[in-house]
Design brief:
single chain; alpha+beta; six-stranded antiparallel beta barrel; 35% helix
């Protein structure tokens, strides 16, 4: 039961909890070179004149302290004006995302999860031009980076800090397309310049980001890109826990592309054709209108902000396994009943209005919540029968509870396939 519910949480989440910078360049040091004046050395005889002892040289002036030049701090308006032209909106047949130019030759970087499984990718620049992506130069799942090639040449490129780390407290700006709201700007600070999550080092920051921001730039107040926004932690009571891939990792993958170590792939390779007469559904997701995009993202936001935290609350009420081993049958029955009621309450929060393309997943999710509630009802019954020394009845109820939990997992898996393309 415990393993199954944990699988439920992981399957529905479908999100990355799961976007560096360089130290300032060392200031040039000026050297004070003191040259002796041209003339005769002390004690050297002159021509027809007796040599005289030269006066002592004046003491050297104290060295001038060299203060490193501080980087220019731009206003928010200046940062945005510089960044809008380099930031792009990415549309795929799987969902939405953001990106930015790495050079003026049309190379764009975004997150791996934005283009994963896509059969068509379009880059939209700030001048509203659409550029088809036909080639993925590099796609690195481990660090969640994808480098795309487009014909969009001549667009501005911001400098990138490719060594060192930013200071905690530094002001940063996030630009992207949350929920399809193109070129949205938010700001915050660096919370932790080196936050390790699952053996990957991220930049943790407080600039608000949402689904659709993935792949967009994280920019310092100096106008330099320090990272690529990747994920926010969407847990109950969590606020402004956002992660960006270090620009150093992006630069390293770009170097691999330049040297040929990274191998590219074409976009849109079709899956194997279904046998004639097969009822196998198409794996392609039709493009969405702006209105439908907003509706889908509203539902996805519910899943991430309300439903998933609700799962965590309900799972926290589950009776510990030790209750059964220790004979705490009454306590176990009470906890199982509370868990059942929690899931029933969670089911009542499911939105009545669901976008058409998500309806099957929403129906599966509703069935899953109903079924897991029934499973905990049976678990409560098993505890009660064990308390009454009805061991046979307890075993039968446990078997039914386990079957219901397994069925819940099937519903969740089915729902996950529907929601996966949109929970980037």
């Amino acid at each position: 039961m415990r393993l199954r519910v944990r699988q439920i949480v992981a399957a529905v989440a479908l999100m990355l909890l799961l976007s560096g910078c360089t130290a300032l360049p060392a200031a040039r040091r000026q050297e004070n070179v003191h040259r002796a004046p041209h003339g005769l050395a002390a004690g050297a005889p002159g021509v027809g004149i007796a040599a005289e002892e030269a006066p002592p040289a004046p003491p050297a002036p104290p060295p001038v302290a060299v203060v490193p030049e501080a980087p220019k701090v731009l206003s928010a308006e200046e940062v945005v004006q510089k960044a809008l032209g380099t930031t792009v909106f990415i549309q795929t047949d799987q969902g939405l995302g953001s990106g930015f130019f790495l050079d003026s030759q049309g190379t764009v970087v975004t997150n791996h999860h934005v283009i994963e499984g896509a059969r068509s990718i379009t880059v939209i620049t700030n001048d509203q031009r659409k550029h088809a992506v036909t080639y993925i130069a590099a796609d690195e799942e481990a660090n969640d980076i994808a480098i795309l090639k487009t014909a969009a040449t001549g667009y501005p490129v911001l400098p990138m800090l490719t060594s060192g780390r930013p200071q905690a407290g530094a002001t940063v700006y996030a630009i992207g397309n949350p929920f399809g709201l193109d070129w949205t700007v938010s700001n915050g600070i660096i919370s932790n310049p080196s936050r390790t999550v699952e053996r990957v080092s991220f930049i943790q920051h407080t600039a608000p980001i949402s689904p659709g921001n993935s792949g967009g730039p994280l920019i310092l107040s100096s106008g330099e890109i320090v990272g690529m926004n990747t994920a926010s932690v969407s847990l109950e009571h969590a606020q402004n826990l956002n992660l960006a891939v270090s620009i150093q990792d992006v630069d390293a993958l770009r170097a691999d592309v330049a040297t040929g170590r990274a191998k590219g792939t074409a976009v849109g390779a079709a899956p194997p054709a279904a046998p004639p007469g097969s009822n196998q559904p198409s794996t392609e997701t039709p493009a969405m209108s702006p209105q439908e995009t907003a509706e889908v993202m509203k539902y996805v936001n519910y899943l991430e902000q309300e439903f998933l935290p609700g799962l965590d609350r309900c799972e926290a009420l589950r009776p510990p396994e030790d209750f059964w081993k220790q004979g705490k049958y009454k306590e176990g029955a009470d906890q199982a009943t509370k868990t059942r009621e929690c899931y029933r309450a969670l089911g009542r929060t499911l939105p009545a209005q669901v976008p058409a393309r998500l309806k099957k997943g929403a129906n599966d999710l509703s069935s899953a919540i109903t079924t897991i509630g029934a499973a905990y009802n049976r678990l409560s019954d098993a505890y009660s029968k064990a308390a009454a020394n009805d061991q046979q009845g307890a075993r039968e109820s446990l078997e039914i509870a386990d079957e219901l939990a397994s069925l819940t997992g099937d519903y969740i898996d089915s729902a996950a396939k529907v929601f996966a393309p949109y929970m980037k």
